[in-house]
Specification:
The chain has a single domain, classed as Alpha-Beta Barrel (TIM Barrel), CATH 3.20.20.70. Helices cover 33% and strands 16% of the residues. It has 13 helices and 14 strands. The strands form four sheets. It has an eight-stranded parallel beta barrel, surrounded by four helices. The longest helix has 20 residues. The radius of gyration is 20 Å and the shape is globular.
Length: 380
């Protein structure tokens, strides 16, 4: 006889601002390139997210707050009425399944190309991405971005606030400001991408200023209880070298600690790292932790459950998982009963469009041998 899985706090209900969450599992934002070329979410996206509505919270993939912020082809946006209408179909489908959604707001900064957005990318300083970038014509050399003026900065802050209002109009419970993974806000915080000598550069206080202003503007626009912030301390993706990680993030958290935000979301969180422990102590509200499970390798047999439980023990409140949700629309139930998990079948199918590798992953109920095993587990 197979033993029933031990009880886990991951399946306990939780509270996030005004939201009651049925469990502590969060679907992390995952870029999937299924929007139209104009950034309008497509009906297939409604199917995809509704399949995963059993997550305690879904944080929908990065959506651009303005045209110049577009990173890659077929990335969704949230800066015009067509975008709002497209996302409304998604949030309605998820709500019909009992789910809850936030939308991530992401400006790519130098992670962009004129062939993707029709515009020259902007950044804190004219430092190009040190790698090629995907475009409709294939991978191309990155261009040197235009350095943002202070007027550009002010208008971009306003664009984030307007995008947040659009997200609420589209039916999202809130938004997550993306200050991670080498995109624009992260570029302002890092020494190697921010060479400015004005109020938005130089010291740590100057380099976090743009991120703080964006978060404050978004919170003022829709209420702080509807706003989360995502960070990835020490992350070098997209050519980022922060230089003083141990100073940046405590200063950033201190600057925002009293704003009443819905949550702080830490990517690749490690409960054994002193910085994670320091940020947990400094952050007075809900902390979402995304376990450091690596990228591109197989999904752990437990889907990241053990790593998530360690983070809960270290003070996290909610656990965000990415690829495990990507390949398992019913991940919560599979983990609850200890059933086997689907693996990501083909990494490149994540970004090429269509149903394959997107909406065609089987549920446990549709997988007869695994469904029988699950019944045995529940009955043990």
């Amino acid at each position: 006889m197979t033993n029933t899985p031990a009880p886990s706090r991951l399946f306990d209900p939780a509270r996030l601002g005004p939201l009651d969450l049925p469990n502590r599992l969060v679907m992390a934002p995952l870029t999937r390139n299924r929007a139209g070329a104009d950034g309008v979410p497509q009906p297939i996206m409604a199917t995809y997210y509704a399949q995963r509505a059993s997550a305690g919270l879904i944080i929908a993939e990065a959506a651009t707050p303005n045209a110049v912020g577009q990173t890659y082809p077929n990335i969704p946006a949230i800066h015009n009425e067509a975008h709002v209408a497209g996302w409304r179909q998604v949030t309605d489908a998820v709500a019909a399944k009992g789910g809850r959604m936030f939308l991530q707001l992401q400006h790519g900064g130098r992670v962009g190309h004129p062939d993707n957005s029709g515009l020259m990318p902007v950044a804190p300083s004219p430092v190009p991405l040190p790698e090629t970038i995907h475009t409709p014509a294939g991978r191309q050399e990155a261009v040197v971005p235009r350095e943002m003026t202070q007027d550009d900065i002010r208008s971009t802050v306003a664009d984030f606030a307007a995008a947040a209002r659009n997200a609420v109009d589209a039916g999202f419970a809130g938004v997550e400001v993306h200050a991670a993974n080498g995109h624009l806000l992260h570029q302002f915080m890092a020494r190697n991408t921010n060479h400015r000598t004005d109020a938005y550069g130089g010291s740590v206080a100057g380099r976090i200023r743009f991120a703080v202003e964006v978060v404050q503007a978004v919170a003022e626009a829709i209420g702080p209880e509807r706003v989360g912030l995502r960070i990835s301390p020490g992350n070098t993706v997209n050519g980022i070298e922060e230089g003083d990680t141990e100073s940046i993030y405590p200063t950033l958290v201190e600057a925002l600690a009293d704003t009443g935000l819905a949550y702080l979301h830490i990517v690749w969180a490690d409960p054994d790292q002193p910085l994670f422990q320091d940020l947990r102590k400094a952050w007075p509200g809900t902390l979402i932790a995304n376990p450091a499970l690596g990228w591109g390798g197989p999904i752990p047999a437990d889907g990241g459950q053990l790593a998530g439980e360690r983070l809960l023990d270290a003070g996290a409140d909610l656990i965000a998982l990415g690829r495990a949700f990507l390949a398992n629309p019913d991940l919560v139930e599979r983990l609850r009963v200890g059933a086997p998990l689907n693996q990501v079948r083909d990494q490149h199918m994540m970004y090429v469009g269509g149903e394959t590798g997107y909406t065609d992953y089987p549920t446990l109920a549709a997988d007869v041998p695994h469904a029988a095993q699950a019944l045995e587990l529940v009955g043990s």
